[in-house]
Amino acid sequence: MKNRIISFGLTVIMLLAILPASVAAVESYTVAVPFGKYYSIDNFQSGGVAMVYDKDWNCGLIDESGAEIVPIGKYAFIDSFSEGLATIYNEDGGTGVINSSGAEVVPVGKYDYITPFSGGGAFVYDIDSNVGVINASGRETITIGRYRAFDGISEGMAIACDDSDMVCVVDVATGNEIVAPGKYDVISAFSGGVAVAAVGKVSVETVIPSVTDADSLRDKYLSELERTDGVVFSVIDKTGKEIVAPGKYDLIYDFSDGMALAIKKDSGGEVLSAVIDTGGKEVIPLGPYMMFPNYIFDEAFGAQGMAMLSSVLGDLYNGKLVTDGVAVVFDKSGRSGVIDTSGKMVVPFGRYNVLSFSGGMAAVLTALSEESLFGLTEETILNGDMALFTGIIDTTGKELIPRGEYLSIAISDGVAVVHKTDGTCAVYDNTGKELIPSGKRFIMAFNNGRALAVNASLAGLFQITDAPEAGIIDKTGAMVIPFGAYDFIMEDAYSWYNGGDMAVVRNSSGQYGVISLTSAQGAPGLESADTWAHPYINEAYGKGFIPAELQGNYKAPVTRGEFVRLAMSWLNYKTGKTDDQLLSEKGLTRGTFNDTADPVLLAAAALKITDGSGGGMFGEGIEFDRQQAAVMIAAVYRVLGEDTANAPDFGYPDINVAAFWARSAINFVGGKGAMTTVDGQNFGPNQTFSRQQSITVFNAMK
User: Fold this and answer.
1) Which of 281, 458, 557, 633 could be a cystine partner for 623, CB 3.0 to 4.6 Å?
2) Burial class (CB in 10 A: 0-12, 13-18, 19+), 11
3) Would the pTM of this model clear 0.90, i.e. be above it?
């Protein structure tokens, strides 16, 4: 696994790990589809269904209970589900439609081709490529050949062109014309019950510039105003009523999330911007500032690029005009600021380079000399190593985390995931409270209370190296699926969780199955540990090697007996073997002590992990110091076959304070990174060792 690099991009993400036998006892989920029942399983789609395959790649369909609702081989192919419906194909290429229960809504072979459902309808074609529309019940509400072409379906409304290329709007449910042909030259897709309509010739070509400063944005405004000069814009609802009077604005962009950007020149030629809602009301009043049109975000990166950015960075690039009652705007000098819905400036221009707000938070972008947010390419985003961010602010401009340099910030689901330049990662809420303390793991954006996490540090922007064990965590850091329990196979960063509690996983034998997630099982007694230790204790608990006697009172000094039991439990986890199997492989039998007959401690003695406390005694209740811990940890590595003798001097200034018998082990564990310093330099050989420190050390051991 060394030097393996996994990039969280647009291709399949494969996170490889081994499932140790000791993990099974603490799983917080149940198996919905047994491993090996199917050769392969796709991720769950909308409607709670997933495609399954046999070895010959014949397909079928299962629901979230694992029930096979479409037997393998019944259809030649099943397309992806959209709005609870999917196109099916027979061997001759004929198409039909099924719902998420597997029932045929349109018999297979009825049409030559059926597009995926969108906006409450789908296009159907005959063998001569004439087109019509069916609704969600499969009824042909716009008969084939009635219109020459269509320009999409949205919210139950189809934009159609007649034989004279005149545009109209047709209700998909009834087939009735809502807007007669010829009233408008262009009608956009409906969003929030309204659509932008225009009279006049508008070029269908959209040019997305590389927006690197406000001058470029202003030039875009001006070029589009020039391109649409003489065009009269208005907004209509689903009855054809004009919500915004024609000509009120010189340019209206498409609606998204119930809002649209509107542009107007004043009498002096100054460009003014406003944000209007679906009722035509100005949410952000017309003023001398600029905002990014929604579709720049979509088209500058493309649909796949946006999916990648969303999975890694959450809602940073959401392109929403108004969120949490505020909007990010720009002045003529290219400086960003924040205004509220009254037009009042709440964060002055130039204080920060602000991105979109989400959940009361916005990331603050580093000022880049050569390229800004929209000059970044997908390659730069994935493979760069620059610190892109300097912090997070709330809607008042308050800094929620200390200003500094951060590799990435992902805001979604009401929390912010912050990756720091030292390779650590932490999670904060919208008050700046640290929900998950900084730790060496990579966490992607949260979705529905959960996030994909990788048990490895960030190495360059959005890349990780070495032993990438993956798991799923909740917002407390508790493991929903322990690190290393499965190999995760996913087509994008969020396909493991699609609105439900199902995850498609692959085990270490290469077999696919489906697990049903339940509530996360965090480590018991976690409130007794220091905050810094929470994620490491949770990770270790998820791996299953914390003995029951150590599950609580984490700040207490660890005893000799507790540490040895922890060491043996970790060996079971690491090797997947029981104590008896470890002894048998090495031809050993358990040792003896005068003060204990505990089989775990006697097995540790046989494996030379401990020699006891002298005089034939084990000394189970004796407190433990750091040099004794180092000696036992080195002994654990020897059981795994490593040479720990004559380790080179690691450079601890206080090495001569340690007992002679411990110095080689201290240098070894320092070189392995298994134990850290107590003050940035010294090892502290005589300092006591706590339960939480012991668990943290074993959790970090490879």
Assistant:
1) 557
2) exposed
3) no
